[in-house]
Design goal:
single chain, mainly alpha, 85% helix
């Protein structure tokens, strides 16, 4: 957080000093310095928003595979908490974003939070609808005593079908987009 707010101060100063050194300010000093200060102040926000969107996309794309691995672990006899820990270890290289989020669940539970609270925190932290649905599914399966493996398998299949439908929808839109060029 300190780095972000520091960047919101430093980047406008750097851009303004670059405008001063290059001599571009002679075009219109108030306009150039105002634009450099404004862009410099907004640049960290754009960068952070871009990083958030990229992380959410990586989580959204990797979630079905991670859920399938959790189903395999649960069906092999591990509990949900042990399955989450095992999946974190296995997907650390292929899906680091999802592994980070799942490891935070394990850490929160070791710190004393309930399973439901840890999954709710995951849903709030990630900002991804599929993760919110996963958290609610896990919480409900835990509360009602239903099969976690079966519900996770259904959720994984649902996520894959949604991803396929979104790709087909984008493919259908390409013909309309190609008409004008």
């Amino acid at each position: 957080i300190n780095f972000f707010y520091g960047a919101k101060v430093v980047v406008p100063l750097v851009l303004t000093s670059a405008a001063l050194v290059t001599g571009i300010y002679e075009v219109g000093p108030f306009f150039v310095f105002g634009v450099t200060a404004g862009l410099g102040f907004m640049a960290p926000d754009f960068w952070l928003g871009n990083r958030m969107a990229a992380r959410q996309l990586a989580i959204r794309l990797g979630l079905p595979n991670v859920i399938d691995l959790m189903v395999i672990c649960i069906e092999a006899g591990l509990g949900l908490d042990q399955a989450v820990t095992r999946v974190c270890e296995e997907v650390k290289i292929s899906q680091p974003e999802v592994a980070d989020e799942l490891s935070l669940i394990a850490i929160e539970q070791r710190a004393g939070h309930t399973r439901a609270d840890a999954w709710r925190n995951l849903a709030e932290r990630s900002g991804v609808d599929a993760v919110r649905a996963l958290a609610s599914i896990v919480i409900q399966a835990d509360q009602f005593g239903t099969s976690v493996a079966r519900t996770l398998r259904v959720h994984s299949d649902t996520l894959r079908s949604k991803r396929t439908q979104a790709a087909e929808e984008e493919a259908a839109k390409t013909t309309v987009k190609l008409v004008f060029p």
